[in-house]
Design goal:
The structure holds 2 protein chains of 2 kinds. Chain A is α/β, with parallel strands linked by helices. Chain A has a single domain, classed as P-loop containing nucleotide triphosphate hydrolases (Rossmann fold, 3-Layer(aba) Sandwich), CATH 3.40.50. Chain A has 10 helices and 12 strands. In chain A, helix 3 crosses helix 4, helix 3 packs parallel to helix 5 and helix 5 packs parallel to helix 6. The two termini of chain A are 32 Å apart. Chain B is an all-alpha fold. Chain B has 12 helices and no strands. Chain B is elongated and about 75 Å long. The chains are: A alpha/beta, B mainly alpha. Chains A and B meet through helix 2, strand 6, helix 3, helix 5 and helix 6 of A and helix 8 of B.
Chain lengths: 320, 300
């Protein structure tokens, strides 16, 4: 383990027992994830819906235990922390701010909850801290007595961020923090996250399918496909010269707001395989333009050159 | 871009809790106004009635048996609703019956509500084996015929007021459990419960501070249904002679005692029967209105 690795995921696998059409089946949501997040960096996890991004975030948060492998925070298993110690270290921000705030609590009560749970400070002291936190995320003071139902999506997400930060955690796990918000509000929230990251030197795990967001915020990117990390590396490198065909396809699918420009031509078809019956060999081969017999038989192991790693038998060439 | 530039400008004027919103909607609801008025009158009569009409409901006056009510030709204001077979004042017995019905109703709902909510929340929140075990309990409870079990228990232990409350309370918790279980399951998957776990909340805090306030709507609705249920069950048991024991009065008991007079003195059944019907109807109207007031809340 590197000394600066704050989050270490080693060979993490997660199985769910599901009942599909009355038949018990094992859904392998994660298939051997290896990942390190260094202190102070922003790591983005990207991939299509259903690829296991959210499951991975739940393992990192210690809400769920891996079926096999390890997830550790500062060298200690995520599930071994007692609830208060873990809360002081890592906090989540969820996708849907309409679901993440208790409709029966006022904004002030919601933001103060982490302090109350820890029994920290008196009433007056907590009030001051809540006010500070609200100011830092750009919420007007009078909203303290409002209920979540009276707030807009962007305001609610600010409340969620204030709640996450009031206990001064080191790690923030943001699961699609902007995808439920209006486009006009998304950039405000992203700028806020970037600003707070710099101010509190946070380590952030950013889960997103929005590559523009990732490009803007992340230091490193891990691309997931069907429960595996198929490519990872520094953001600039991944965006400039992806090695995996799936990464290439994701980048090609970015829509550019430019007049008279046609929709991007997708190099892969739309179908995402069921994680209940993953394809043999490389999981991506049914959709891959470069797939051949080897890809259908053998799951490519991760190979690395420098700080990037990818799983592909026929990687895209690097520009010389 | 600075953070202050993003300062929200839409200012909600008076912060309204979801509870206050539901209450305001409730007060405007026609069914609530009618049902609430009737229910209020009956509760008021039960509380201040025996004080305003201080005749002893148990004292017999055999010289004045089966007196007719005041609106009959021979009626007197001495006994406005007449007297029963033992010459006891019918109005005083009616007022005492209101006390008995409401006491049994509210205390049983309290007891069954605590049992049912406890089991339902535990099953819904913890899931797994606890859920299986509690579901099994609910199923067992549903297989028991309520009236039959109540009859047997009362026959064995006697029909005192506390016995009745405990027996009915121990039988009517199933709907509370079923409703809170499914409501809790839905809530437990919402992100605010996961957030509560992530900030390190203790399980009691998650259940009582985060979860329970969100269950108040469905709980109140079930409580009204069970309140009407309990009132009717008490009346039925008393009618069968296995409920409230004389000389204590109850509306069901009064109907039972008057059933021989059905053809000759129909008012003797109508006088306790009418408020019984009105009470149950009022409770159901109020329950309906509460369901509307709570469910119409589209904002999470």
């Amino acid at each position: 383990m590197k000394p600066d690795a704050l989050i270490t995921v080693e060979g993490a696998t997660k199985d769910y027992i599901v009942h599909a059409e009355g038949v018990r089946a094992t859904l392998r949501a994660l298939r051997g994830i290896d990942l390190t997040v260094r202190r102070g960096e922003v790591l983005a996890i990207v991939g299509e819906s259903g690829c296991g991004k959210t499951t991975l975030s739940r393992l990192i948060l210690g809400i769920e235990e891996p079926s096999a492998g390890h997830v550790s925070l500062e060298g200690k298993a995520a599930t071994d922390y007692d609830r208060l110690a873990r809360a002081a270290l890592i906090q989540p921000i969820f996708q849907d701010p309409y679901s993440s705030l208790n409709p029966r609590m006022t904004i002030g009560q919601i933001i103060a909850a982490p302090l109350v749970v820890r029994g920290r400070g008196g009433r007056r002291e907590r009030h001051t801290q809540v006010m500070d936190a609200m100011r830092q995320v750009g919420l007007a003071e009078h909203l303290r007595n409002a209920y979540p139902g009276q707030l807009s999506g962007g305001q609610r997400q600010r409340v969620a961020i204030a709640r996450a930060l009031i206990g001064e955690p080191e790690i923030l796990v943001c699961d699609e923090p902007t995808s439920a918000l209006d486009v006009s509000v998304q950039s405000q929230i992203l700028n806020l996250i970037a600003e707070l990251r710099a101010r509190f030197s946070l380590t952030i795990v950013l889960i997103s399918h929005n590559l523009a967001v990732v490009h803007h915020l992340a230091d490193r990117v891990a691309v997931m496909y069907l429960g595996q990390i198929v490519e990872s590396g520094p953001t600039e490198k991944i965006f400039a010269s992806p090695r995996h065909h799936y990464t290439r396809a994701l980048l090609d699918a970015i829509l550019v707001p430019e007049a008279h420009r046609r929709l991007p031509r997708l190099t892969i078809d739309a179908e995402f395989p069921s994680p209940l019956t993953p394809p043999p060999g490389c999981a991506f081969h049914p959709r891959c333009p470069a797939a051949d017999a080897v890809c259908r038989e053998i799951d490519p192991p991760p190979v690395g050159d420098g700080d990037t790693r990818f799983r592909c038998h026929h990687p895209l060439p690097t520009p010389a | 871009m600075s953070v202050t530039a993003a300062m929200p400008t839409d200012v909600p004027r008076a912060p309204q809790s979801p509870g206050a919103v539901a209450l305001r909607r409730l007060l405007r609801h026609g069914n609530f106004r009618i049902g609430g008025t009737i229910l209020g009158l009956i509760i008021l009569a039960a509380i201040v009635g025996p004080w305003l009409w201080p005749l002893d409901p148990a004292s017999q006056d055999l010289g004045h048996r089966l007196a007719v009510p005041v609106w009959s030709a021979k009626g007197t204001w001495l006994h406005p609703f007449g007297t029963d077979q033992l010459g006891r004042d019918y109005l005083a017995r009616l007022l005492q019956g209101a006390r008995v019905s409401l006491t049994i109703g509210f205390l049983t709902v309290l007891l069954s509500g605590v049992i049912g909510t406890g089991l339902g929340v535990a099953a819904g929140y913890f899931g797994g084996r606890i859920d299986v075990a509690i579901n099994f309990l609910i199923t067992i409870r549903l297989t028991l015929p309520v009236v039959l079990v109540a009859l047997v228990v009362v026959a064995v232990y006697g029909g005192s007021l506390p016995t009745l409350i405990v027996v009915i309370g121990l039988l009517l918790w199933d709907r509370f459990a079923v409703v809170t279980r499914s409501a809790t399951q839905q809530l437990a998957s919402r992100d605010f419960i996961i957030s509560a776990q992530a900030i390190g909340s203790s399980i009691p805090r998650i259940l009582f501070v985060e979860l329970l306030p969100n269950l108040i709507g469905p709980l109140v609705v079930v409580a009204t249904i069970e309140l009407a249920h309990a009132v009717l069950l008490e009346a039925a048991l008393s009618f069968l002679g296995l409920g409230v024991k004389p000389p204590l009065s109850s509306w069901g008991l009064m109907v039972a005692e008057a059933k021989n007079q059905l053809l000759f003195r129909p008012w003797m059944i109508a006088i306790p029967g009418t408020p019984l019907v009105a009470l149950v109807l009022a409770i159901n109207l109020v329950g309906d209105a509460i369901r509307d007031a709570v469910a119409a809340d589209g904002r999470a």
